[in-house]
Amino acid sequence: MKARPPRRLRCWCWSGVGLLLALLTAGLANAGLPGGGRRPLVLEWDGTWIGDGLAFSPYRDGEAPYHRAPTDEEILADLRLVARHWRLLRLYELTPATERTLALIRREHLPLHAIIGAWVTADTTPAEKTKNRAELDGLIRLANAYPDIVLAAAIGNEAGVFWSGYRTAPANLVRWAREVRAAIRQPVTCADDFNFWNKPESRAVAAELDFITLHAYALWNRQPLAGAFAWTIARYEEAVQFHPGIPILIGETGWATHHDPSRQQPGEEGFQMPAEVSDAAQADYLRQHFAWVRTHRVPVILFEAFDENWKGGGSASPAGVVEKHWGLYDAQRRPKAAWQAVARELFPEP
User: What is the CA radius of gyration of the chain?
Assistant: First the structure.
């Protein structure tokens, strides 16, 4: 087997507002953590900044996490597709597909790195405790087995915010973050909505982390398209000020191409999304996204690579439900019109 090429990696580079806020709070950056302070998140590869990441889930129609898994051939095809434009992926849960994704990246010498996550829940029933234990153990095992690929480990995904359907206590997140951080060498984070990171109970969690992963969806928060990314960055800046000295990665943001406008109860997509939801709107948002990220180099994970029809109720729900339609590619891996247009502008072929 051909040896894996060496990778020269350095910490992320801040500029613009990110640099200013980081400098203002740098004196607090190492407070509260054992072992010499916060571990840096490495976001350069062979001299190239890779902080412009993509959420990756290789499940196709008829597949879903913890149920039917994709084949190695399907995962590899997806990895090769996204590797044309990205170097950083975010993976969400500890399934066999996650481990095979990392193994394929290594085997095929793909120029990809990953932030991997443990999907945790309330931890109140024996079944929840068993599931959470398996996720955390898997997170530790894969971080240690793939140190050349795994850049960071995330505890939970929207498990602390008040509206979560699987909300767990902040004390659990604190305990798990300490455990995982003691067992691996990579930086540790928790991923949650901005409406968790702006609450006092989030401070105890943030104090245990190497960096915060913040989600901010302008579309879900009734924002007009024209100011969508400005709203997103305002949530980021508020979190920087609320958690001084703790680096922040925007772990989810994006714009869907379809939704169900008939769902008009508060909290439902028709009510929460008065802005245009279409391919043209997604293209507009992507242009805002890439313009800001490339200028300021604050790390951001775009949600997401592919439409996922297993979400939003799967086959029991209508095809137009918004949770199925955040991808740059559709479920058959065809680039959507928005991504075709933006990729031509921003990623010219060699």
Answer: 19
Q: Domain residue spans in the chain? A: 16-346
Pairwise CA distance, residues 224 & 221, whole Å: 9
Whether the CB-CB separation of 340 and 279 falls below 8 Å is answered with no
| pLDDT of 22 higher than 70 | no
Positive/negative CA dihedral, 229, 347, 109, 298: negative
pLDDT tens, position by position, 279-319: 999 999 999 999 999 999 999 999 999 999 999 887 778 88
320 pLDDT band, cuts 50/70/90, is confident
Residue 90's beta-bridge partner residues? 55, 115
pLDDT at 34: 67
Question: How would DSSP label each residue in 180-225?
Answer: HHHH-SS-EEEEEEHHHHTSTTHHHHHTT-SSEEEE--TGGGT--G
Number of Cβ within a 10 Å radius of residue 348: 7
Specify the 3-state DSSP secondary structure of 233: helix
Question: Is the pLDDT confidence value at 14 over 80?
Answer: no
Contacts of 256 (CB under 8 A, 6+ apart): 219, 273, 277, 282, 322, 325, 326
- Tell me how far apart the alpha carbons of residues 103 and 100 are, in angstroms, rounded to a whole number: 5
Pick the CATH number of 16-346 from 3.40.50.10680, 3.30.1140.32, 3.30.70.1150, 3.20.20.80: 3.20.20.80
